[in-house]
Amino acid sequence: MLTAEQVTQTLAPRPVRFFATLESTNDAALAWLHEGAASGSVVIADEQTRGRGRLGRVWQTPAGAALAASVVLRPPPHLLHQITMVGALAVVDLLDGLGLSDVGVKWPNDVQVRGRKVSGVLSEAAWRGQNLDGVVLGIGVNVRVDFAGTGLADRATSIEMELGRPVDRLALLASLLDAVDRWYDRLESGLTFDCWKRRLTTLGQTVTLQGGALVGQAEAVDEQGGLLVRGLDGRLRRVLAGDIAPADRS
Ligand code: BT5
Asked: Does domain 4-199 have CATH number 3.30.450.20?
């Protein structure tokens, strides 16, 4: 189990709110953002009871087995769409740093090892009228989640399972947040999009989107994170949010 003392000491001087159990770190971070949290402030939970994926889906975070972190960021509005890329690239760095191979990003927000999902990223923006107040970058990473016998057994994995050895969750958390800082600080450089694109495993694949309404070839991505799909009719369509099948059956 992570404890508040360990986490706050390890991450100091970063402002931290730690919870042994919480519904969702993204909700707590959004509330803190509205209270005026500084950019870089982070909410951590050892366990989430109502972790959220996209489109109201559930993200599992059992106690003692994963990382669940939500970072408050205050980017300029034109870079908002790249915050999810920052999260995915931070996880990729973490996994590369552990020596894992076959690490890639499945559009738009899954980080996979050998084609299995080890991490998910959910960014949620907060607006004040027309103005961007900030964004919460939520990252979930499976460290030793046991998916055996669950519906996710054949498409989710954990770091320890892939590495075949135990890892220190606290050290991983610190490395993950350092990586978030590094990619966030580089946002203005224009590198983020190129690096994210390079790690995407989706380009060139035949994809099925929108529940089968769109089938085609994933040709390209744009700087907003949109996916350009060449349909069977030859037309190029842009998809901003969605899931691609068959690899994703969520
Ligand atoms: C995501 O959604 O992948 C974004 C997940 C973001 C989770 C973080 S944890 C910290 C922060 N606080 C929150 O409440 N959320 C964020 P999506 O692409 O919609 O994928 C969700 C789907 O992934 C589910 O429908 C399942 O099929 C699958 N799934 C659920 N839990 C998983 C897990 N632990 N590992 C792998 N796959 C999982």
From this structure: no
